[in-house]
Amino acid sequence: MFTMRFLVWMLMLLISCAPASLYQRQLSQLPKEQQPKYKILKYSIEAVGEKKEIEEFNHIPSTDSVALKQFEEIFWRKRDPNPLTPENERKIEFDRRLEYVLTNFSVNNYFVPWDDRGDVYLKLGQPAERDIESNGEMWTYLNLNLFGSPLAFKFAFDYLRGYKSVPVPSPLGNREPYGKTAEIQQYMITWVSQVQQKPMQYFYDYGKEELKYAFGLTPFLIRESPNIYDIYLTINAPAKKLITPSLDSIHYVWKVLVQDENYERLFTDSSEGLSYLGSREDLDKLMALDQKQLRLKAGTYIITSELVNSAGNKGGMLQSKLVLPPYKFPKEIEVSKAILAKEIRAADSTDFKFVRNDLVIKPWVSSVFTLGEPLWLYFEIYNLPLDREGQSHFKLTYYLQDLLTDKRYEILEKDLRQAQRDFAIVQSFTDSLFQTAKIPIKTGKDYVLLTEIKDDILGKKVQSLSAMFKFKKS
Predict the structure, then answer these.
(1) Partners of residue 267 on adjacent β-strands
(2) Residue 7 in 3-state DSSP?
(3) CATH class of the 201-329 domain in this structure
(4) What would the pLDDT profile of 270-280 be if each residue is shown by its tens digit?
């Protein structure tokens, strides 16, 4: 026993004589009573953070308590699985795990606050099975699969580090690359940890049956207000998921939360949707479609959408990052995102949704189009140059692009000359138009509509790209 203690003492002496790492320097700059708190924060970030976040944290001076607190707040705000509630459920769960780790897996070590068991527990939580043996422990997670077998971890006692993780025999034997069990385990831990931290992608259980729906964002520029955007938010969902118990109407609540790039709340918008059903409505084919309009200045935003049925027992949350770059008029030719539409018509006094430039633009509710029915495309062009006569002159060329082969088929070409700089472009595509262009359309394949805009005054080209879609037989 004396020999083992002497060896441990000598090893610690060698470590203390080695060149100081960044972490050692950070730790040594703090008073002794503040060091445990910093160690816990550092290894908590390392346990569940991404590589970029860990590097960012390591470069914050340990003495800058304000910067460390701000980093920690943003770190957990971006992991909030339901930012529409005041609680951060992910942080609450992590704090519970952290308390357990500090109580059960702490080590008397200058550098680390807990052993390898603590890291695994923080990432994956309580194992389904925990077998304590004479020389270590075996943990098994029955809900996580590793090549057909439950994910398992073996920990062996180490005088210096407490319990350290050691390889568990692979279910596939020693064949490479599967023999590197430790690497595979680490990959599994990392993957599960990242999936748990990614908010709103339908894994978070907040007491409702999963409600899947589509959520889209389309930004448009505003000539009169530089650096301001009109944002059109659109949702579509299966009507049968939103039908009321009386079966006579569709009723839902749609909430949208807007946060800045640091996940600070800016504002929340909530609205109800209600529409009555006819006696012959086919619920299997009927889709609920809704839209909101926001006006945001240039910047980076986190947009969270929650859709819940009237009974409150079905819900779904989706989140998108929206980057709006600064712009000024006049500068260069710009083009908006293209909208695939089921219907485009002139708006009247009764229309207040899906209206843009005095047009009603009903977006397509799925990415599948039936051959034989018309397909509409809408996009906007800004700041085309004018010639000496005060007219713009440009050419529009429409292509259908096969995403599998990357082959591009020209559909249509148009020349335009008008006395204006900004344009709202509407174009319909029919089966006969594709046939005239001799395009071999195949059902089930992925396509996009691409528009090339060539300015004939300065010779500049820009492109507008639609979302991906498929064709099906009528």
Answers:
(1) 258
(2) helix
(3) mainly beta
(4) 999 998 887 66
- In contact, 289 and 238? CB cutoff 8 Å: no
- The 8-class DSSP code of residue 336 comes to P
pLDDT digit string, tens, across residues 14-29: 444 444 588 888 888 9
Task: Enumerate the domain spans of the chain.
Answer: 16-197, 201-329, 330-474
The alpha carbon of 118 is separated from its chain's Cα centroid by a whole number of angstroms, namely 29
Judge whether 429 and 449 are in contact, CB under 8 Å.
Answer: yes
User: For residue 418, how many other CB atoms are within 10 A of its CB?
Assistant: 13
pLDDT at 7 over 70: no
What is d(CA 303, CA 258) in angstroms, rounded to the nearest whole number?
Answer: 5
Distance CA 244, CA 229 (A): 36
Paired tokens of 353 = 């949704």
**DSSP string of 116-177, one letter each residue:** HHHHHHHHH-S-SEEEEETTEEEEEEEEEEETTEEEEEEEEEETTTEEEEE----TTTT-TT
For residue 187, give the H/E element and its range.
Answer: helix 181-197
In angstroms, the CA 377 to CA 97 distance is 51
What's the average model confidence in pLDDT over 165-188? 59
The predicted structure's pLDDT at residue 326:
87
Pick the CATH number of 330-474 from 1.20.1250.20, 2.70.70.10, 2.60.40.3880, 3.40.190.10: 2.60.40.3880
- Pairing state of beta strands 359-363 and 461-465? unpaired
Find the angle CA(174)-CA(177)-CA(178) to the nearest 5 degrees: 55
DSSP element (H, E) containing 101: helix 89-104
CA torsion through residues 140, 141, 143, 148, sign:
negative
Do the beta carbons of residue 327 and residue 221 sit within 8 Å?
yes
Q: Render 359-380 in DSSP notation, one character per residue.
A: EEEEE-SSSEEETTS-EEEEEE
The residue count for the chain: 474
pTM of the model: 0.76
Please give the Cα distance from 351 to 341 (Å, whole number).
16
Tokens for 398, please give them. 């429409």
